[in-house]
């Protein structure tokens, strides 16, 4: 079990917590991180780029000019790609860019990301994170005392004061345990958990036992 210090919002150590090595101190597998981040970014692509083909552009109902006697190449329609305003050839069409990733790989990558933050000493465990009111300045002061100005905060959705106070912080993000993902963990330099969310994340990422 990995033993981590528990701090309060003043940045002072007030206790300790034991977390599973299988989740927070596992081997960092960079190839899994790359694979999952690639899949996440691909899934965000809209895939809506589209150009009109010759059957979709306007006009072209009449033959541009007669077949013979003009000295020019024969043309059947102005919708052909060689004409200005004609249809595109092999243009982009709507498509799905998503890349399927097995659940086991996603979980393994997230364990690696969390373990990386612990190895870098950028994993901060708080006893609790409470703000008296929705105020960005209040959260900024807390992050300043924790020396975490670019942090991913994992907190329960019920704690609206924290979530709403972070809306105007471009380098800070608040997610519930269910929303923690590899991309956001790697994007933010610090990972902040409370004792409660740390245990919830541990339960979510604990390796599943194979029934024999």
Task: Give your account of this protein's structure.
The protein is an alpha/beta fold and 212 residues long. The chain has two domains: 2-45 and 101-205, 3-Layer(aba) Sandwich (Ribosomal Protein L4, Chain: A), CATH 3.40.1370; 51-91, no CATH class. The protein is built from seven helices and six strands. Strands 2-1-3-6-4-5 form a six-stranded mixed sheet. Helix 2 (30-43) packs across helix 3. It is elongated and about 95 Å long. 24% of the residues are buried.
Summary of the model, kept short:
By secondary structure, the chain is of the alpha/beta class. It has helices at 21-24, 30-43, 103-119, 136-145, 160-165, 182-187, 195-205, and strands at 2-7, 13-19, 123-126, 151-154, 173-175, 190-194. The longest helix has 17 residues, at 103-119.
Known CATH architecture of the largest domain: 3-Layer(aba) Sandwich
Compute the number of helices. Answer: 7
Major β-sheet profile: 6 strands, mixed
The CATH topology of the largest domain turns out to be Ribosomal Protein L4, Chain: A
CATH superfamily of the largest domain: Ribosomal protein L4/L1
Mean pLDDT across residues: 93
Report strand order across the widest sheet. Answer: 2-1-3-6-4-5
Unreliable spans are: none
- The helix content is 25-40%
Radius of gyration: 27 Å
What is the string of helix and strand elements? EEHHHEHEHEHEH
- For the secondary structure, the number of strands is 6
Q: What is the highest CATH level, the class of the largest domain?
A: Alpha Beta
Portion in strands: 5-15%
Tell the overall outline: elongated
Number of domains: 2
Pairing-aware structural class of the strands and helices?
Answer: alpha/beta
Instruction: Give the termini separation.
Output: 26 Å
